[in-house]
């Protein structure tokens, strides 16, 4: 169902979405109407009532078609689950139904101009002022930033307390005086994905909009990052297999020296190796999904899945571009867009170098 929806409603508009740097706002509503948003959120909060596997299947369908523009991975995969895990009953009933319908688009604002993987270096502050916080700071590389109706902001409520001074505040953007969306960023790849700068200038956030306990934000982030990294792994595995499928089809159709390019031994061997790498990545990620559904996925293994699957994605897509020849460098061909899209996978959700450090600490 997800595949058919994306084929009909997403792929035909790819060039337009890439040019404007975001998918249409109405697309979110259509996805919500079909049940493709918050599929793993309980029905009592307006969600699909499924498991995380339903979310992963939807993400897999999108990336399996070579699209990266629709920011559902952040919306349904991350933001909704922060609310479900740490939100009060009132907060869950206030925000989750709208997220499931597409009436509310969610974003999470962690990264800053001077702080990426090192969350302890955050400079955004939230100072308590009666029944509100005064929020000040800047965030960058924020997925769904333009359309976001709800932003979970990572801020320091006690700058002197280090990691224990970080809290999560929910900003309802429509009513937030002092909140501003900056420029939509001009990225190497993922052209259709809404990625923006956000600014907070004395934004008043009700204390009732804090997620969980004050000062507990860093722990919440660490707990959710394993899930986030597995989402990246799912998308990487799907994109890798899609690249192989595209290239097998192309090389069987493309004639070179009087025969299909696929008939050349080098082509067949390259694709045999790529198909093997893609399958190994898929099996490892699937095993992590099974463990995650049982509540057994540890942070180090999630880091392995993220680092390995994205490294393999980069390697395989690069080799596939080579087999496309000059056409592989033309953006009208999906393999060229997949090449550009793949690069950031090794950077966000924690750079792969950080993943290696986390893995090493578990040894």
List the helices and strands and how they pair.
Layout: H1 2-9, H2 14-20, H3 25-34, H4 52-64, H5 72-86, H6 89-101, E1 106-109, E2 125-129, E3 132-143, E4 150-156, E5 166-172, E6 179-184, E7 195-206, E8 210-211, H7 217-253, E9 255-256, E10 259-260, H8 265-293, H9 299-324, H10 334-342, H11 352-361
Helix pairs in contact: 4-5, 4-7, 5-6, 5-7, 7-8, 7-9, 7-10, 8-9, 9-10, 9-11
Overall pLDDT score: 96
In the CATH scheme, what's the topology name of the largest domain? Answer: Butyryl-CoA Dehydrogenase, subunit A, domain 3
> Biggest sheet: strands side by side, in what order?
1-4-5-8
- State the helix count: 11
By CATH, the superfamily of the largest domain comes out as: Butyryl-CoA Dehydrogenase, subunit A, domain 3
**Count of individual beta strands:** 10
Largest sheet: 4 strands, mixed
Helix and strand run: HHHHHHEEEEEEEEHEEHHHH
Q: Based on Cα principal axes, name the global outline.
A: globular
Spans where pLDDT lies below 50 across 5 or more residues: none
Q: What is the CATH level 1 assignment of the largest domain? A: Mainly Alpha
Residue fraction in strands: 15-25%
Give the helix level as a range of percent.
Answer: 40-55%
What would you call the structural class?
alpha+beta
Q: Quickly count the domains.
A: 3
